Amino acid sequence: ALCPDALGACVAGHRSAEPGHAAAVAHLGLRPLVDLELRLGEGTGALLALPLVQGAVRVLHEVATFDSAGVSEKDAGA
Q1: E strands, the chain, where?
Q2: How far is CA 58 from the centre of its chain?
Q3: E strand or H helix at 14
Q4: Considering the entire predicted model, what is its pTM?
Q5: pLDDT per position as a tens digit, 21-35
Q6: 15: Cβ contacts below 8 Å, ≥ 6 apart
Q7: Could you list the active site residues?
């Protein structure tokens, strides 16, 4: 059994071409990041999705917000 609290930290890296995988992902309520029709069974889809997850983490932690960048309102001339 999977701890329900763990699902918040789960990412479905890809959608496998295997029918059982689609059922498992749907049951967990996850949305795969990519669908490359892989059925290699070696974690290749997860490995290919890893840069997407890493990039998302970097955006969340490193990209300035409007407040931190000192943007107070939209420039009327833009």
Answers
A1: none
A2: 12
A3: none
A4: 0.67
A5: 889 999 999 999 998
A6: 21, 22, 25, 32, 34, 35, 45
A7: 42
In this model, does residue 55 exceed pLDDT 90? yes
Give 34-52 pLDDT, tens digit per residue.
988 888 777 888 899 999 9
CB 21 within 8 A of CB 15: yes
- Judged by DSSP in three states, 20 sits in helix
Whose CA is closest to 13, among 42, 1, 59, 5?
42
Helix (H, G, I), strand (E, B) or coil at 24: helix
Nearest to 16 by CA among 43, 39, 42: 39
Helices (H) and strands (E) in the chain, counts: 2, 0
Taking the CA of residue 73 as centre, how many other CA atoms within 13 Å lie in the half-sphere pointing to its CB? Answer: 2
